[in-house]
Amino acid sequence: MARILPRPKVLASEPYFEPRSIDWVKILTIILFLAPGFIIMFTILYIPVIQSFEYSQYRWNGLGPLERYVGWENYERLYDTTQYRHARLFREATKHTFILMALSLTIQLPFAMLLALLVGRGNFRGKKLFRTIYFVPYVFSDPITAILWIYSLHPSGLVNTILESIIPDYQKIIWLGSVENPSIALYAIFAVLTWKYFGFYMILYMAALQNVPKDLEDAARLDGANEFNVLRKITLPLVGPTIRLTIYLSILGSLQQFVIIWIMTEGGPVGHTEVLGTFLYKYGIDGLRLGFGSAIAVVIFCMSLVFSIGYQWMVLRQDYRSLQAQ
Amino acid sequence: MKRHLLVLVILLSILVVPLTGDQSASVEAQDQVTIRWWHIQTNPDQAAFWEKVANDYMAMHPNVTIDITVLENEAFKQRIVTNMQAGDPPDLFQSWGGGPLWQFADAGLLRDISDELEGEWRDSFSAQSAVEMFGQDGEYYGVPWSWGAVVMWYNKELFEQAGLDPENPPATWEEFLEVVQALKDAGITPIALGEGDKWPGHFWWVYLAIRCGGEEAFLAAYTREGSFDDEAFVCAGERLVELIELEPFQEGFLGLGYGDEAAAFGDGLAAMELMGHWAPGAHAENSESGGAAIEGKVGIFAFPTWDGAHDGLLGGGDGFVIGKNAPDETVDFLRYITSAEVQREAAKIWVIPVIAEAEDAIEDELLRQVLQIRNEATYAQMYYDQFLPPAVGQAVLDAVEGLFAEQYSPEEAAQIIEDEASFELD
User: Fold this and answer.
1) Distance CA B145, CA B129 (A)
2) A143–B254 C-beta distance less than 8 A
3) Which of B7, B84, B202, B408 to mutate to test the interface with A (most CBs of A within 10 A)?
4) How many helices and strands in chain B, by DSSP H and E?
């Protein structure tokens, strides 16, 4: 048993341990600084989130008072695919969201890394020019991007014209509304999203690559590692935190994708480019079904939240920790 | 083009275009009131006309300021819902009447003008059934100011090129399908369609539903004595599939918008279009030629029919309704908009007058024909996507899009609509 030692009296008389008066001014200052952010977050973010959970229990067109309590019916309409058309549409929308997500992770991010290595580290003239060119699409707003590509992907637009001139016997592809092959629209949309976002990831990667110490790579080379191994064993692990962060951003971005798709296709043709965001807007708000829309929003919110917390806890935690250690 | 414009207009509308300034600020005799007016006439001539109407009214009533906001069609539909949900309707705004309007009315967001409407004002309307679209149970929330019809527009020159008689358009569905085939054989796109926006295609299905089942079938389904998967609505889908199988639409029609449709017809690249009375304005606005490519070559004919088919007209138009917080002067201003004087002026530009006194003011020969078709109709069916509750209207649009994309059978399409209707209307 450990004995509890009497508190050393000498220390108690030290001025350091004297009970200090509470510094109200300081506390007030802290509260004052925190209050605006907290109030804004609370009123326009947390309260609506809680409210939408309440709304999701009602059949409500958003205009009058909440009167028709329906319990979990709105959620059933999202879940029961055998009975409800909206449930089938929702499943499709979820599927498309995950397809976009998977494509982003497997194509968009590696592509951005490749370009970052080329433009950030390569040794050739005009590097800066390419860096700027690649980043420009990200500067365009979503609506401008969408309109630009509506024109380009028009049946007789830029894309088909170019393909026609370089491929002999090119069969014109209807990108955004093909009757024979409507699902091609989703991949066309993905190409647009890649065009828009890869520059952003490229810049992040370039910044991270700049922080990789040259001597580590040189040391590996001296030890006989070839360039591929240097990349695999030294460079990429050192930019790991950034890669993990971009994966996080990319997944969240896919879950929230809305503007470009809405303007380009409104989820069409026949729901082939419907994603969670467009589904929520179309059937929740446009159809004046705010109760049902709230249920959709709650489901999307939960998906994002679970992913977000899970990913932070499992993956990003180590990065935070090493950040603190520094 | 409409959808392309949408974004631009959203951006513009954020800035709220106050077209009227402080012209009336100097007078202080009466209470100053401001009327917030939202309309969707983005066409420069039409927008300028409304501005003139507002200015004239303000000159006559110095205490009134009219604050105009011009919104593009799709942008308007989205923004009005937002304002309604916030309980802040504009004082005077565009409406097509029907289901969505009644939902706003049920929520107490509109002003009942039945007292002011009763009597002389009401009697001035020639399009009485149109007035009914703006009221229910004896209450009225606004009035129509232009009421037309959806008709077939066709390009006589292209008909000639295909060896068809341009002065003798098809009257029956069979003849119509033959015409489509003849045009196709001549290498001409028979029909312009922008199904990406969905509502242009739903005209086809609704017209066929009118022919198959007439007023009885629709009213039965609407009042839930019948249903939307009844034979009439399946028949509409089957007839539509007959047409779709001929592949008569321009390339990529499933992903193109109404703007592309109007452009195709307006540039003389497609021979026919099923569209409302506003079509000429849209042709001029969206086409590269500004409508010059088809000038003087356009004719109209009534939607084809067949033996045993029902008569009836798909129609509709524009109205203005009044928000709950509107100042009293708004009603008077609305009365001024539908006065013979303003209607006659508007008829010279694009409006199909709703009051008898102004009907002879139409200068455009085609619009005169539309007016004649409108006045001769025994039964006028309002567009489904406007008349029905929004969610059901949406199901109609989805179902018909599925037909055009060859993804749903006529039975499936009817079932989709019925599922939604049974949920919303029962």
Assistant:
1) 13
2) no
3) B7
4) 19, 12
- Which of A64, A178, A265 minimises the CB distance to B106? A64
Q: How do beta strands B313-322 and B380-382 pair? A: parallel
pLDDT at B11: 45
The residues spanned by each domain of chain B are 2-148+316-364, 151-314+382-425
The crossing angle, in degrees rounded to 10, of helices A184-210 and A127-139 is 130
> For residues A63 and B9, which has the higher predicted lDDT (pLDDT)?
A63
Q: Provide, rounded to the nearest whole percent, the portion of chain B with pLDDT above 70.
A: 93
Residue type, A55: Y
pLDDT at A5 over 60: no
Residue B10 scores a pLDDT above 50 = no
Q: Which helix (H) or strand (E) holds A246?
A: helix A240-256
List of residues 6+ apart from B256 with CB closer than 8 A: A154, A155, A177, B193, B194, B195, B196, B250
> Residues for chain A: how many in total?
326
Question: A188-202, B121-135, B311-325: which has the minimum mean pLDDT?
Answer: B121-135
* Superfamily of the domain at A73-325: MetI-like (1.10.3720.10)
By C-alpha distance, the chain B residue nearest A259 is B7
pLDDT band at A18 (very low <50, low <70, confident <90, very high): low
From edge to edge, which strands make up the β-sheet containing B189-191? B189-191, B270-275, B151-155, B298-301
Task: Report the C-alpha gap between B84 and B130 in whole angstroms.
Answer: 24
Distance from CA of A251 to the nearest CA of B (A): 26
Q: Is the peptide bond preceding residue A269 cis, with omega within 30 degrees of 0?
A: yes
A287 closest CB neighbour out of B78, B107, B390: B390
B3 has a chain A CB within 8 A of its CB: yes
Q: How many CA atoms lie within 13 A of A212 on its CB side?
A: 24
- A192, B84, B85, B264 from B271: Cα distances, Å: 34, 41, 43, 9
Report the topology of domain B151-314+382-425: D-Maltodextrin-Binding Protein; domain 2 (3.40.190)
User: Least CB-CB distance to B391: which of A151, A178, A288?
Assistant: A288
Contact B416 A85 (CB under 8 A): yes
Q: Does domain B2-148+316-364 have CATH number 3.30.360.10?
A: no
**Which chain A residues have a beta carbon less than 8 Å from that of B397?**
none
Position B13 scores a pLDDT of 45
Contact A174 B254 (CB under 8 A): yes
The Cα of A265 is separated from the nearest Cα of chain B by a number of Å equal to 7
Residue A178 with chain B: CB contacts under 8 Å = 252, 254-255
Closest to B235 (Cα-Cα) out of B183, B179, B306:
B306
ipTM over 0.90: no
Q: Do domains B2-148+316-364 and B151-314+382-425 have the same CATH topology?
A: yes
Minimum Cα–Cα distance from B397: chain A residue: A270
Separation in Å, CA of A92 to nearest CA in chain B? 15
